[in-house]
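Researcher: Please translate sequence to C-alpha cells.
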Amino acid sequence: MKIDTFLMERMQSLWENVVAWNLSESGVHPLSVSELLDPSTLGPLELGYGHTAGSLPLRAAVAAMYPGAGCENVLITNGTAEANFIAAWHFGDRGTQPAMMVPNYMQLWGALEGFGGSVRPIRLRESSGKWRLHLDDLEPPLSAQPQVIAICNPNNPTGAILNDDEMDAICAMANRTGAWILADEVYRGAERNGSLTESFWGRSERVIVTGGLSKAYGLPGLRIGWVVGSPDIVQELWRYKDYTTIGASPLSERLAQEALGPEKRAWVLDRTRRIIREQYAVVEEWLRARSETFEWIPPEAGAFVYARYQLDIGSTDLVDRLRMEKGVLVVPGDHFGMGPYIRIGFGVNQHVLRNGLARLGELLDEIPSTPAPARP
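Model: Translation complete:
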C-alpha cells in the first residue's frame, strides 16, 4: 500500500495548536467530562482491555439510533476515521473503481486509492442556492460497476444534506449494480434547523453506516466511532480492526455510553444545534459585509461554511499567508480538490470566532480582487 500525505490532517496537526485563532475545525467547542457525569463515578473503572468490538452497553446505545439494529449490527471503532479506514481496506484492494461523492473529507479518497482502487467522483454542484446531486451525474461513475459508493451526508465541506430523491437514486443505482453504500454520517445531529437527517440505514440491504462522537456530539477527544451494518459485514470489518487498534479505551467507552443515553443525547445535540445557529449568525453577518469578495451557500448542517472567494491568490497560498501573518487557520479549497474556496469553522467560542474573522478581513484587504470566475 502506498498512500499520499493527507494534506488537511497534516496541516491541522502542524498548526491548529500553534495559531492564536483556529477556525479550521468542523465540530463544536468540546464538552468536558463534568458536563457528562460526576467524574468521581469513574474511580472504580478498571483500565484494562475491553471487548475488541466494543462493550455491549455501548453497542446497544449505538444500535438504538438505527431502527431494527442490534448489537450484532454494531462495531465500535477509534473514531469515525478508523471506521472509514477499515471499510476502505475491505473495498479498496479489489481492483474496482469505487465511486465517491465530492467535495468531501478526503480520507476515504486517499485510503481507497492507497489500497488499489481508482476512485471516480460523484459531484455535488451549486444550483439555485443549494449544493445538489444532479442525478444525471450518477450514471458515468457507476457505469464502471463500483463495489462501493462512498457518501458523506450531511456533507463536509458544503454542509449540504441529500434529499429523499437523491438518496433513493443512489440506492437504486447501488441495487442495480450490486454496489455497497458506505455512508459517513458523522455530522448527523448537527443540523441548523434541528431536524435529524435521514440515515441511509434501512434504505438498501447493502449499506454500511459510519459515525462517531467527534462532530455532532462535541466529543472528539474520546475517539469513539462506529460501523453499523449487517452482521456479516460487521464480522468482516472486525477482522480488519484486529490488525489496527484492537479496541477502544474503556474510559472513552464509558463516557460515550453516558453521552448516548436518551436524555443526555438529546441535551448534547440540542447544545450543538444551539451553538451552530448562534455562531453561524456571526459568520454570516461577516460574509454579508464582504459580499463583493465571497459567495456562499448557507450550510444545512455542520459548524462550518464553505465560501468561494474572488481574489487573485490560490487557496493554499491564501491560507498560508493567513496563518503566518495573522495567526488564523482555515482550510483551503485545494484540500477538497477545488480552487478558490475556504472552509471556515465557526463552532469555536465567539471570542475566537470574531477575532479570527477580523484578522482574516485584515488580510483580505491587502489582496487584490479578481473578476468573478465562471461557476463550475
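Researcher: Any highlights?
Model: The chain has a mean pLDDT of 94.
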